[in-house]
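Extended Data, panel c. Modelled sequence:
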Amino acid sequence: MAAARARSEERRAEIVRAALNVIAERGYRGATLGAVAEQVGLTQQGLLHYFPTKEALLVAVLEERDQWDTGGAAREGWRLDLLDSLVEYNAMRPGIVQTFSALLGESVTEDHPARDFFTRRYAQVRGEMASVLRAEYGDRLPGGLTPEQAAPLLTAVMDGLQYQWLLDPEAVDMPAAFRDFLRLLGAR
């Protein structure tokens, strides 16, 4: 029984990786379950055994991406220098960043299946960033903002840099720009 469960989990992980590739190539709306199934040697019906809908597969892709970012751990103990390391890490994997950014952009429409995921994720990330900032600065940052006021700004800088870097990687050094932002923030 345990061996069958392990094979099933391994197969699910293979499908998620294939879905990530297909979404990176075609975007979510252009990606089909048939294309994902073909990449892993399944029929579309066989793929539906693991993921009953395209939306369920999309959420699994997004959750897996978050696991890669955190190494499977919660971000509770994060510090600003670890965020700097995450930006460096993202600069080494443009395909993943591109897929995430494309899905984020698509998700702002009312009917997009990832909209709820991103809405929940950003609420969580803003809370985590407020905790990171509070651990670094206490209840007030050098400019007078509270960690809760600065958290959406920190999040926006990280994601905004990703878009600029994806569009023009020669002109935007994402890790260096993030370090510049940390200096502007007054990081210790």
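The chain has a mean pLDDT of 87. This feature is highlighted in the accompanying rendering.
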